[in-house]
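I'm stuck. Please check this protein.
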Amino acid sequence: MKSDIATFLNGLAMGAANVIPGVSGGTIALITGIYERLINAIKRCDLQAAKWVINGKFKEAWTYVDGQFLFALLLGVAISIVSLARAFEYLLEYHERLTMAFFFGLILLSIVYVAQRITEWKVSVWAALIIGAAAAIGIAFLAPASENSDFLYVFICGIAAISSMILPGLSGSFVLIIMGNYALILSSINTFNLSVLIPLGLGCAFGLIVFSHILAWVFKHYANHTLAVMTGFVIGSLVVIWPWKQTLTESVLREGKPPKEVVTGYSWQMPDFTSTETFAAIGLMVLGAVSIVLMELTASRSTKS
């Protein structure tokens, strides 16, 4: 029971992280020690599990896919996303810098815990780390696309978003910003717009199953290199969630609809130490870092028990 509650709380944290552009739920799973278990559980949602379900062998299927763990975790993720989507929509609109500051501190310290899981540092592992960081930074400089509610495009958005959500350091929310559909999907969650949520859900399900098989294989055969790439992704994601940046937008004319502001990039700045908001942001960075320490301590106690 205690383990289920801890898993549920991890799910809440993962769901909250996935709502914030630049933050990855996969990072939360990795630093709390449940990442490989999650990937292997998702990977087992395969034909064997489907056969047991079709034949009425629900207990065997439930045990095979680590159902109790997945249920507790995904329940936490779902509740967190649905309940926090509106709150984070408000925070990002009116208090973006302070919100990003908290997550910057959280992600910054999480790099230490992710890197600690690498058992051997050699040239190829360092190269993997640099490649991961370069890839994440490169994504940050991509120009976002325009919003597109077409069924197939939203389906592809679901595949891309879920793949990045379970990959530490790459934010599903930020990938949706790059693909132009972050605002559309966030508002669709709030309004329960099924014309968007159905293709998104189908894309997420497809991407989750396929990508989990790939990740499970590389983790099994190249654990240190995989962790190094993930550490690089986390390092690179700091560029996206740097609190002192200005969002660059442009107004796009749409036929029969009012003009829409579209994000085209970011302009990074240094903090202004004459502003009280800067010190509030630094305080929230520290709070974010402390949150990671508490998560790690909770995960360690859960593992020991």
Summary: The chain has 14 helices and two strands.
